[in-house]
Amino acid sequence: MAERIMTTIDGNTACATVAHKTNEVIAIYPITPSTSMGELADELSARGQKNIWGTVPLVVEMQSEGGAAGAVHGALQTGALTTTFTASQGLLLMIPNMYKIAGELTPTVFHVSARSLSAQALSIFGDHSDIAAIRGTGWALLCSNSVQEAQDFALIAQAATLESRVPFVHFFDGFRTSSEVNKIEELSDEVLRAMVSDDLVQAHRARSLNPEHPVARGTSQGPDVYFQGRETVNPFYVQVPAIIQKAMDKFAALTGRQYHLYDYVGAPDAERVIVVMGSGAEVTEETAHFLMKQGEKVGLLKVHMFRPFNPALLAAALPKTVKKLAVLDRAKEPGSVGEPLYEDCVTAAVEAGLQVEIIGGRYGLSSKEFTPAMAKAVYDELAKPNPKNHFTVGIVDDVTFTSLDVDPSFDTEPSDVVRALFYGLGSDGTVGANKNSIKIIGEETDFYAQGYFEYDAKKSGGNTVSHLRFGPRPIRHACLVTSANFVGCHQFSLIEQFDILGSIVKGGTLLLNSPYPASETWDRLPRKVQDQIIAKDVQLYVIDAYDVAAKVGLGGRMNTILQTCFFALSGVLPRDEAIAKIKEAIVKTYGKRGQKVIDMNFAGVDQALANMHQIKVPAAASGTLAMRPPVKGAAVPDFVANVTARMILREGDSIPVSAMPVDGTFPVGTTQYEKRFIALETPIWNPAVCIQCGKCAMACPHAVIRLKVYDPAVLEGAPEGFRSVDARGREFAGMKFTVQESIEDCTGCGLCVEAC
Amino acid sequence: MAERIMTTIDGNTACATVAHKTNEVIAIYPITPSTSMGELADELSARGQKNIWGTVPLVVEMQSEGGAAGAVHGALQTGALTTTFTASQGLLLMIPNMYKIAGELTPTVFHVSARSLSAQALSIFGDHSDIAAIRGTGWALLCSNSVQEAQDFALIAQAATLESRVPFVHFFDGFRTSSEVNKIEELSDEVLRAMVSDDLVQAHRARSLNPEHPVARGTSQGPDVYFQGRETVNPFYVQVPAIIQKAMDKFAALTGRQYHLYDYVGAPDAERVIVVMGSGAEVTEETAHFLMKQGEKVGLLKVHMFRPFNPALLAAALPKTVKKLAVLDRAKEPGSVGEPLYEDCVTAAVEAGLQVEIIGGRYGLSSKEFTPAMAKAVYDELAKPNPKNHFTVGIVDDVTFTSLDVDPSFDTEPSDVVRALFYGLGSDGTVGANKNSIKIIGEETDFYAQGYFEYDAKKSGGNTVSHLRFGPRPIRHACLVTSANFVGCHQFSLIEQFDILGSIVKGGTLLLNSPYPASETWDRLPRKVQDQIIAKDVQLYVIDAYDVAAKVGLGGRMNTILQTCFFALSGVLPRDEAIAKIKEAIVKTYGKRGQKVIDMNFAGVDQALANMHQIKVPAAASGTLAMRPPVKGAAVPDFVANVTARMILREGDSIPVSAMPVDGTFPVGTTQYEKRFIALETPIWNPAVCIQCGKCAMACPHAVIRLKVYDPAVLEGAPEGFRSVDARGREFAGMKFTVQESIEDCTGCGLCVEAC
Q: How far away is chain A from the Cα of B325, in angstroms, using its nearest Cα?
């Protein structure tokens, strides 16, 4: 067995690294959340990184996923080992080629970060709808449940496709796995080489279209022989399960990590079993272990091989004691009897003669959280005399009443895992610094680490929430942090609006980036926040990181400063060691920008702790400030108040089905009600120097600056301090002129100032 | 109830006529076998044909089916009633838009002539693989089993989509239904108007994207609300079955034709039931009735509503006595537990608590024949103690042994149905004349009529076989004619190669178009044919129709002449009446080409019977001619001998699975072995006038003419009559020159003569 080398990377990186090492042609077209796999492959080849045979894979970007699939099909026919990365609608565009690639028994692996399909709305987030849509193409479908598996199965799939000649889709959960950073054991080139048989590569080459030994392929067959031709592939599909298992067993011998097509985990005498694939299996596994310790006879069956689906192996993997199965699908097919995995399991049970009661349910559509509490709700449902079939879990369905009740207080997370939450704004450096922190902890300590990052749709200037975990064991808790020991609020405006302390544990630490002096900050907090701090005995630390950054020459880049504070407060590493590692990371990240940038960042780190202050929390709250409402306006429409506002407040999960439009139709003109207050600095009109050129208004991309020329009479009753000057220009003689800024909507981008 | 108006048309025409009458925008892209639906719609609009609201639908051809689906999606969002027609890969390209159209609850009907998907080879023929590939899109899927239903369900689907807001795919079997000509009851505009509610059309309009009442649609939803949004549609899907049934009931009140979502037919106490959809249901229904008369407790469940799939309604439609179900799928999904309809039925049975044993099987892929004998094989299998699951029927699977044994002698066809087979060559007018004959009989008599036409892939000059039936009851025998009362062989070369009399009944009639005088024809027949004629007591009639055609000025167009002979011999109509109808048809068909053409055809008709002769068949065969072998060559490769040759002989159905390549790979250069002998006239080189310019060889599109300049020494041992002249040109001094024609490969196109 090779030496254990640990690395802390996300699922896409884990997968694409193996794919790049074991292919020769890679045709790509970007689609979230698979994009970074193609980008990484492109970057590796651009850097001259070679595959295990010593050649640099050719990476080519096509005009669409349809083109990528066609390019892959063509390259495969030349005998090249070929792959692509995609998701969602991208995968849909590959369907026509996929039927042909399978019909021609062509070995390849497509790596898919599974994502929702556009229906009532598009969604870039993760579920298995796209995988469900291709389950009839004749491809083997192999599911990874974690970052570690996304790497390992990328290799196992490559080995198995070459031996079986059946093409593989290797998939894992978009975002939850593709973008989760986790500490995994890296595969060495020796393992890669041992798993991929050169003989089978040669056999693939020998089947290529080649003028030296010409054959005709892609012909037309009619009623006389097409049916027989279609049945010729049966023996190949019959062999696939054994071939995958053989690859898994060989992989286990090489790495010590043993997988099975259907991995049962749980009580050996389990009566209630959940069948699930993807990251939900990790959560369910944690839950099952937790419940087993309480004496419950529960377990779960992890489906790695979704196609070919094998009833006998599935039945054999289950304990004989099973009475009830709940099959969880991360997909919805309206009008079907049930979702795909459920229908497969029902049919498999009938064929295998299993005497079990089976229910099916949907969970986690579009990266909807799937938590231990939800897994427990499913086990609880199974325990009822007449469990609900075709349920949903994770939402409130007050229309067709499919949803299960979930006890939100149920949690399985061990207390020795450090859980940290960071609130920031898109592009403020928070996410980048956190990825750095995970890498430092994951790679420089024995701790395992996990990071997951939420972004809203507003990108730069939108909200970001970073969910970090550090602990002594591999972290399989594939869901958001809901009870944090540490909360970092990197933007003061966020604590004025969002329930940032809702998920802090009693005695937890809050690090607040405050533009106010430490002495003033307490009084600037909304009353509700003060109450929470007192009630939860929160340790409150504040720093004006923007001020520190400005002083050391970093401008608005306060991320390394706050990162330093986090390390100091969390104690995951000894303080000096942490600071040394942060500085190493700074050299790595900013090295190519020159010594000056490095020095400024070093200064930021050194200044951070000096400028961080613990606030003595008073015994009673005294604040008078209310939380800032999510929407504002003279007449806020009901829909905005009941739906949009809750989404803005990050409380969209609690919106019931009845509140959502049935066909994706939304009212227009609703952004006017959302006031984000995200600008640290806003422009102030200086009437004394203004030449009334209007460039500021034209330059503002957020329509925040308005110019008005008006009758002086309307100034009557203007609020105090409202400024105006005489309008310039002959045609405006006798009129007044004002430039007004909506600072609630301003992003502080500074373009108006540049234009002035 | 409206007046019964009968019409004799194919399934595409039946469907597209209704679609054109009930839509406003039609976006098309041609793909076999749906093409003629788009063409008809285009033609109707070009002619100014109005829909039931008095406007001419806008028909627009896009750049691909992807574009057609996008155009449909867009037009629907403007509130226009919109449709398209497609099949196979075309439907695959529509998948991304289909998820969105369903997610947005947009009423529309796509009409699909279901076709195989390209896998190991493309196929233009019919099965349900394309429908299976879209079953997850959230569309209602409504299946027509016959030409009558293709018309009726086009309307029922339009009514139901408007009421339910769920989009519909209305599908029927490609070729078997789309291209079968049958006598059906036509829908009047009154029925169309009664079925399509103006209020629902207005409701669709009111939901359109319109600047007068702007809304946002096609937004992005994230993990917070996408799941809830996706579940909002549940009540709409719950209502679909009742809405379709209501439309079916209203349709029944208007037309007298009552349909149900799941139509059970058969013994009220049936124990063995076949579940099937599409034209196979027609065949199964005939078979069930036949077996019931023999006391067998059998029945069938016709699935019209494939999505939403409703377990309770399905179970309710079955008799309580059912013990075993065989679910037939016209699709294959390698790696699945079972095919789609099978998995649905198993799940439905479990959910409905049905105590039945269920097996599933594949049939009819790519228009593979599905006959009463095959339906009986399935019933027989069900009667066994351990019936085979995942069987195939209609092929010989000697690899994984899935196939059921079929007794080819079993037939259910009533003796009062006239069955006629016509063998011709593509473009020789045979198919056109037969379509004319069906129309004459269908529309001018009380007889029901059915026509189905086989073409091979060679188009012009390829083989055609026309299968015609006429009888006193509606003809549901949706398979080829295998026991013909009448066989027309329109090309003499065909009887020299193909087993044309293999399916003639004892005492049946053979009409042979012979280029030889009647007195010589018997001796020109292969010995095997003579034996068959004698053994089966065949009434043999011959005519030199090409000679008649040439004499009356019709050139090579002998179709009306042979049509006249058919009417005279078959006796379906009184001879004089038949001739009058043929002449009417000639005026209709050729009227616009002028009186002269009409007169020539009339003369052909009049001359036909005078030139037709019955041959007195001797008591014993005396011929010495062998059947012409399908392939020829010095060293015919095994594959050509065992596979290609059998396909050429129209015996491809009997090729077993083991003989077919597993991945669609075929040897190249095999056309050299096939000698078609289809030219009526072939060129003869005239050395006396030849200037050796070489134009003849250059002009030949079939590479039939070769020029050689060679050493006179090689002439030694040349066969007698081998012609050569001195080669022209100084550089060829002393050499010989020959032009040689391969008349076996010549098509008689005449281009060499024109070039000379």
A: 14
Nearest 5°: the CA angle B747, B753, B756 is 140
Are A627 and A497 spatial neighbours (Cβ–Cβ below 8 Å)?
yes
Let me know the angle formed at the C-alpha of B157 by B155 and B163, rounded to the nearest 5 degrees. 110
For residue A487, list its beta bridge partners: A421, A510
Nearest-CA distance A174 → chain B (Å): 12
CB contact under 8 A, A223 and B367: yes
Per-residue pLDDT for A502 more than 70? yes
A402 touches chain B (CB under 8 A): yes
**A224 reaches B (C-beta below 8 A):** yes
Residue B293, token pair as written in the block: 């008369």
CB A538 within 8 A of CB A504: yes
Distance CA B735, CA A713 (A): 113
What value does the CA radius of gyration of chain A take, rounded to a whole number of Å? 29
Tell me the C-alpha distance between B349 and A567, whole Å. Answer: 59
The yes-or-no verdict on residue A555 having pLDDT over 90 is no
Say which DSSP state B537 is in.
T
Distance from C-alpha of A574 to C-alpha of A561, rounded to nearest angstrom: 17
SS3 content of chain A, % helix, strand, coil (to 5): 40, 20, 40
Q: How far is CA A216 from the centre of its chain?
A: 45
B350 contacts on A by Cβ (under 8 Å): 346, 350, 358
The residue of A231, A262, A480 whose CB has the most chain B CBs within 10 angstroms, and thus the best one to mutate to test that interface, is A231
Please give the structure tokens belonging to residue A562. Answer: 């706050």
- Identify whether the C-beta of residue A396 lies closer than 8 Å to the C-beta of residue A460: no
Residue A340: its pLDDT value, please?
98
- Report which of B310, B351, B348 is spatially closest to residue B327, judged by C-alpha positions: B348
Q: What number of H helices and E strands is found in chain B?
A: 26, 25
Residue type present at position B355: Q
The pLDDT value recorded for residue B677 is: 86
Nearest CA in chain A to B314: A337
What is the pLDDT at residue A457? 79
Q: Is the dihedral of CA A331, A337, A342, A348 positive or negative?
A: negative
* Residues of chain A contacting B227 with CB distance shorter than 8 Å: 362, 364-366, 368, 392, 394-395
pLDDT for residue A676: 86
Indicate which of B120, B371, B666 best probes the interface with A, i.e. most A CBs within 10 Å of its own CB: B120
- CA gap A462, A678 in Å, rounded: 9
Looking at this predicted complex, what is its ipTM? 0.96
CB pairs under 8 A between A and B: 391
Contact B351 A337 (CB under 8 A): yes
Tokens at residue A734, please?
Answer: 């006798």
- Are the C-beta atoms of residues A157 and A98 closer than 8 Å to each other? no
pLDDT at A589: 85
What's the confidence (pLDDT) of residue A1? 52
Residue owning tokens 């390394």: A560
User: Can you spell out the DSSP letters for B155-177?
Assistant: HHHHHHHHHH---EEEEEETTTT
What mean pLDDT value characterizes chain B?
A: 96
Provide the CA B170 distance to its chain's centre, in angstroms: 18
Cα B339-B343-B344 angle, rounded to 5 deg: 120
Q: Is A450 helix (H, G, I), strand (E, B) or coil?
A: strand
Whether the pTM exceeds 0.90: the reply is: yes
- State the best of A337, A365, A398 to mutate against chain B, taking most chain B CBs within 10 Å: A337
pLDDT value, residue B1: 52
What local confidence, expressed as pLDDT, does residue B629 receive?
92
A-proximal residues of B, 683-742, CB under 8 Å: none
Other beta carbons less than 10 A from residue A206's beta carbon: 10
Q: How far is CA B704 from the centre of its chain?
A: 32
Q: Is A618 helix (H, G, I), strand (E, B) or coil?
A: coil
Q: Please judge whether A223 and B368 are an interchain contact, meaning their C-beta atoms are less than 8 angstroms apart.
A: yes
